[in-house]
Amino acid sequence: MQVFITGGTGLIGTAVVAELLEHGHDVVALARSDASATAVEAAGASALRGSLADLDAVRGGAEGADGVIHLAFANDFTTPDALANAVAEETAALEAMGEALVGSDRPLVTVSGTPWVSGRLSTESDPLPVDGPVGGRGRTVNAILELALRGVRSSAVRLPRTVHREGEGGFAGLLTGIARQSGVSGYPGDGTQRWPAVHALDAAVLFRLALETAPAGSAWHAVDDEGDAVRDIAAVIGRRLGLEVRSVPETTYGPLGPIFAADQPSSSARTRAELGWTPTHPRLLADLENLQP
To answer: Residue limits of the NAD-dependent epimerase/dehydratase domain (predicted)?
Structure first.
C-alpha cells in the first residue's frame, strides 16, 4: 500500500514511518522544509514538499495514495488563540484529505486524544469532548469519522496524554521542559490525577493496524499505562534532573491547565481484543529513567 502521512518527522511520525516500511508499505511523507525532506528520505520514504496549511499539497498527497495517516499538528499551546489557530489549520487539512478520498473506500486514519470520564476509565465507546480547549479537535475527528457514510474507511487512533520515547514526548515531556526552565518539577493540584501513556513504538503499531484493518467509522485507544499519578511522573522527573518536586498553580500550564489538572485514566481493552494490539515497550515511569540531567 502507498501511504501518505502528515507529521512523519515527529516523535510519533518517525516511529509510524518505520513501522509502515518494515511491513512492506511505501510511504510518502509531507515535508515542510529541506531538513524534513532529507530526514524522510534517509528513513526510506519519499518526501512531498509542503506544509499542513498547503491544502493543494495535502489534497494531492491523499489523492495519490492508497491510504492516509494524519499526525501533524502545530502544537502551539502558548495562548488560547494560538491553540485555536492550530486546530483550524488541522481541520482544513483533514477536510481536504477527506474530500479527496470520498467514494474510494480507502483508509484515512486520524488522531485525537483519549476522552476523560468522571469516576472511571474512558473507553473506545465514549465520545470525544467537543467543548473546552481542545473541543475543536473533537468536532473535527467526529466529522472525519462520519465520512464512513461517504465511502471513506475513516478511523481514529486516540492517543493518551503522554506518548513517550527515551523519556521525551507528550504531557510528561511538557512537565520536563517546564521543570528545566523553572527549576522545579511541578504538578497541578495534589498530583493524584492520573494520565494514561504509551510508548511511541507501540502507538506506531496501532496506527498500522488501523490503516490495514480498522472498520469505517471506528475509534481505538493507544493506551498502555491506564493512568499514572502526575505526582509520580513529576517525582521521577525531579529525581532525574535533581530538582525539587512540588505542587504548582494550574496557570503554570497556560491553556492546558484545566486538562493537566483533570483525572483522565483510560482503557484499551477493546482495542487489544479486536485489533490484536499488544504493547511491548517500556511504560512511562520506566522510560522516564532515560532522562538526562
So the answer is: 3-214
Residue 77 has pLDDT above 70, yes or no: no
pLDDT at 183 over 70: yes
**pLDDT at residue 192 in the model:** 97
Rounded CA-CA distance 256/234 in Å is 17
- Per-residue pLDDT of 109-148, as tens digits, reads 999 999 999 999 999 999 999 987 778 899 999 999 999 9
Pairing relationship of beta strands 46-49 and 67-70 according to DSSP bridges: unpaired
Q: What is the pTM of this model?
A: 0.94
Task: From residue 16, give the alpha-carbon distance in Å to each of 20, 28, 36, 175, 202.
Answer: 6, 12, 15, 24, 9
Q: Which of 214, 159, 185 lies closest to 13 in space, CA to CA?
A: 159
Calculate the average pLDDT of the chain: 95
Cβ neighbours of residue 273 closer than 8 Å, sequence gap 6 or more: none
Q: Domains in the chain, please, with CATH?
A: 2-162+198-225 (3.40.50.720), 165-196+226-266+282-290 (3.90.25)
